[in-house]
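User: Can you write out an input/output pair for a complex, sequences first and structure second?

Assistant: Here is one pair. Inputs:
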Amino acid sequence: MPSLYVHVPFCLQKCDYCGFYSHSLNNSSPDLISVYLEGLEIEMAKRQKDTPQGVSSLFIGGGTPTVLSERQLEGLLGMIQRYFPMNPEVEQTMEGNPGTITMEKARLIRDLGINRFSLGIQSFDDDLLCGVGRVHTAAQAREAIARLRSAGFENLNLDLMFGLPGQGLRAWQASLEEALSYSPEHLSLYGLMLEEGTPLFEQYEGGNDTNTKGAYLRKQSFQLEQKGKDGCLKTLPSEDQQAEMHEWAVRRLGLEGYRNYETSNFALPGYECRHNLGYWRGADYLGMGPGGVSCLNRVRWKNIEDVCAYKNLLSEGKSPIDETGQEVLSLQECMAERMILGLRLEAGVHLKEFEIDFGTDLRDIYRSVLERYKDTDIFIVEGDYFRLNPRYSFVANSILQEFV
Amino acid sequence: MAQASQRIRNFSIIAHIDHGKSTLADRLIEYTGALTKREMEAQVLDSMDLERERGITIKLQAVRLSYQAQDGEVYELNLIDTPGHVDFTYEVSRSLAACEGALLVVDSVQGIEAQTLANVYLALENNLELISVINKIDLPSAEPERVKQEIEDVIGLDASEAILASAKTGIGIEEILERIVTMVPPPQGDDEEPLKALIFDSKFDAYKGAISYVRIVEGRVAKGTRMQMMSTGKSFEVTEVGVFAPSMRIVDELKAGQVGFIAASIKNVKDTQVGDTITDADNPAAEALPGYRKATPMVFCGLYTVEASDYNKLRDSLEKLHLNDASLIFEPETSVALGFGFRCGFLGLLHMEIIQERLEREYDLNLITTAPSVIYKVNTVQGEVLSIDNPSNLPKVDQIVSIEEPIVKATILVPSEYVGAIMELNQEKRGAYCNMDYVSTSRVRLTYELPLSEIVFDYFDQLKSRTKGYASLDYELSGYKETDLVKIDILLNGEMVDALSFIVHRAKSYNRGRKLVEKLRGIIPRHMFEIPIQSVIGSRVIARETVNAMRKDVLSKCYGGDISRKRKLLEKQKAGKKRMKQVGNVEIPQDAFMAVLQIED
């Protein structure tokens, strides 16, 4: 049974670090959302047949799904339930940002079956939020949490970011402590990544030259004075500073009973995100909406990132797929993905599942890799699982490379 | 006496990089109809990809043009192209020696630049008639009057008659051809005299053997002539003679004054040395043409493949390049750190870079190059004299009585305002002042004795940056001199990496040892563990830095839409790692081995 993802490509304003497909509502017509919803309905009607046994979970992400009006949200959720009916026990997550969540919206989506909410807080420091182009304030974040709780959300995730320009360990600790004070069931802690094509990337790495000021600042940041509102670039925390922030968070959250069940994700027992666990365990998924990515039976494809073209193709009875992004995964690639995703999990890769899915024991197929690391403490085989020693989870790339 | 034809003109083009030499050559070829436009590749003379990209001529070429002048006569114009870099000064001087005239091409915007000058002086030494051409006059920023003045001031040539041209648009092309006919003197030789042919280039052909590119100075040569190399006495039977039209075309005979090629089933390009004189074994000339010098490599480096399995491919590729380039020498060597490779000798730094690039591009090799070195002479306690071209082969200190290093006589031409800067640079580079004179009111010639190792070490870049590119340099080996030299070794994670060892003057050893470890700290990526980097002389550590253990190397977000991209990112990173050399458990990027060149004194 695949999971279902619905992409809502609209935001109040795009954040400076964001590489996802989304329209800023400031500079696009509000009718675009209606166009989007029309297209989405056609796509859902068409893809319903891919889920004869229903879907295992729902995640409505973006973008900022909560920028939709109540009526639009009602339309969206009604449409999903029509084509992909789900029991109330099925995990149904919606993402949203502070500043777009009214009491009415919170109640409405809860009533329409959404039982998990993921809130993009990022930081409780207004200066840092402003520095990466977030349009909300810490006060709005607090308000949103209160509204979601009072609307009856008992499974709440808060997204926080570390490694923001100008952020020090203290500021990070303060944000995380405040987040903890709301007792979220789940926390996602993301280190800021500079994605190509984003304003932040241009600012810090622009010109593709590794000797730019940005790259220099990143390396030398611990030596440089932080500059702020005077318009100068704020320094990005160094690799060591980011590692300290992460390590501190792991220790702190551990004391509060959260498990670091995936590289960037923490949950109280039983509140791990089932939808995302599906990705990390190699399950199939359907991605709807412009920019949505699907993977069914080793074929992966992506819808075009253009609301109007998406809708037009669908109303003409054509496929909204971006042909250039379609790939048929080889067995090798599938196995590599299973490893690089599975080793992000605290639990690791399930040995039996791997063998059932690929017809071979991963210890055989990756024998040479294991041989190379046999004198290290990097890999652990325990019970039914093959996993990464958590000491190395924050430097995993060079190890994961071995499997691609 | 049968005088050489009065209707031959042999000329060459002298120009700074980018001043339009190749375009002009193409235009001349096109105008005279040697090739139609359709037949022409973009730039005929620069036939190697690398040459086109760098805009320089590495391997020189020749072409024969047939031109009907305004006097009604048809002239045979031989254009001999020249490489434009100090590494190849000798080759340039031989090509110029094959001509009676040269076009001096100067960019109408940029004016005269350094590299042009050295070649102008070579041309004047060879008594060539110079025709000034001010090129690119179609550019809006062209300043032909200023450039004319510069030619008069800097070179001392009368520029009032300079031709204003645009090789791009074709302006001035006919005037240039006309001027070649009227100004360049016809060749002087006598075709009844014993044969004397000057070799100005050679090329290996799989079917014809080593082909000599020649200017016939005296006499004549035809198929069947028993030719003899005057430097070695070796003789061969001529199988073909011909001209460049511009592709090779066989003719019955080459006579005094003409430019062409001679094939004689010669197995090895070594037997057709540039500058040598070919004569007729049955009617030999009394003496060879002046100026012959054997090509001697001055700069050495180790070449290794990243993948050990590519060793044989590297050997085969070097052998192929050597077929066309007798000045490239190589012999197998072994490095503890890098495995099996070759120690290669080059004419200079550019020659070295070109060979490396050709190996990587044309032969698809992934190479590691060690920093260039010179040949040191080591007098041992046993009374032996060892020639050391690889620092890691230097004997232990207690075995050495003294070390001698190669010294060059360097001539630097520079506008007078930069004399102070040059003197300062030469001081830093351990140079000994010899002489200074004014070649014109604003231009000075400085002569210095400099250690060759200092020229190899960052000299060109410094020369350029301190004189805004206006200095030009020429040098030749003058001898060996005893110096207080030491070897610095580098330890990574406690293990010596022999390929990083270098020899340096004792007074500079501390500074360079310290700067190199600092540099390496920036080049060597973080690993899962901490890596100490040390500079040592003998067993004494003179500097230490540490590459800290990696602490963050992870993709923070990885959900359904990211998976393919993240997998590909890991694949790319893995491929990048493959380009590094694993020494012990440390992965070293290729540029680490050249890092010693990037440090400033």
